[in-house]
Amino acid sequence: MQLAIGSDHRGVRVKARIVATLNEWGHQVLDVGAHDESSVDYPDYATQVCEQITAGERERGILICGTGIGMAIAANKFPGIRAANCY
Question: Active-site residue among 65, 71, 75, 83?
Fold first, then answer.
């Protein structure tokens, strides 16, 4: 599966573990960032993931932030995208 994944600075460590696991399972993962724990704005990364999906470049996306709420709200602003918090 073609996946895009993005996180804010609070999700960098979890994202790295998820990317490693998905790669082991044979998925192709595009990591749009953030790539370190420097403070960033989560909507920037939600936008990058959603644009990959709406352009047809990736089948699905995973968004990670401190609570998940902000990323879900940002992603749901894109036509055709339905995001929800998953634990």
Answer: 65
Give the pTM: 0.94
Sheet with 60-64: strands ordered across: 28-33, 2-7, 60-64
65 is known as an active-site residue: yes
pLDDT in tens, 1-35: 999 999 999 999 999 999 999 999 999 999 999 99
Q: How far apart are CA 84 and CA 22, in angstroms?
A: 20
DSSP characters over 24-68 = HTT-EEEEEE--SSS---HHHHHHHHHHHHHTTS-SEEEEE-SSS
Q: Which helix (H) or strand (E) holds 16?
A: helix 12-24
